[in-house]
Amino acid sequence: MLTRIDHIGIACHDLDTTVEFYRSTYGFEVFHTEVNEEQGVREAMLRINGTSDGGSSYIQLLQPVRKDSTVATWLAKNGEGVHHIAFGTADVDGDAQSIRSKGVRVLYDTPKTGSMGSRITFLHPKDCHGVLTELVTSATEH
Amino acid sequence: MLTRIDHIGIACHDLDTTVEFYRSTYGFEVFHTEVNEEQGVREAMLRINGTSDGGSSYIQLLQPVRKDSTVATWLAKNGEGVHHIAFGTADVDGDAQSIRSKGVRVLYDTPKTGSMGSRITFLHPKDCHGVLTELVTSATEH
Question: Which keywords label this protein (chains A, B) (predicted)?
């Protein structure tokens, strides 16, 4: 069961510049940074608020670290902007299975590692009215 | 001060079909619908979670109701997908003024009426790393 907007993933050309824009313009501070080698991104999580399921909502800023990453390809086509949205769930495996059974393409056979030790999968944007949609179970939920 | 992700605005060709996708795929129910004549959209708000500032986070589905609306123009160029993101604040006037003073273009001189009696304004996406960004004070906050 999806119980929160976990994050909005925003692709950018330069992570440091974009982090500074969000800090100086809105006052949002960096909560966490990491490099996800598998996804080919360097990322910063800005925590915006707590959520009623005990989790949080974040802005996730993403800079590609190699030219063949999916985010690099997306940026080259679209320019900077919202890359994906993510819903939080305590059971990414069960929800992914349930959603797949409804005919929506789930991009991974089993969830992969996302930000801060979370487990994540993605739904095909063409099956979701144009929205690349992530499902995420945070490290504290699994 | 921006204290929550208020909503993610998603543009679609057919509101009823898209509402049904979000209901049948994720279990999200319609919390509110309205037509905003000024913005030229018919919209549905799906409430996803409560937020730590006492507000809520929503998915906002938007269908243009006339061909010259900004959402219609956007859809014709981009196809269905994430149109904007919105941060919630108790003081949209003060925050808009503060952000304008930092050199970010604010699209309205004074906030206009948004979903459910809220007061809203928008920041120019070219000043926000490609993200059309809304600021919103809900009806219960103003």
Answer: Metal-binding
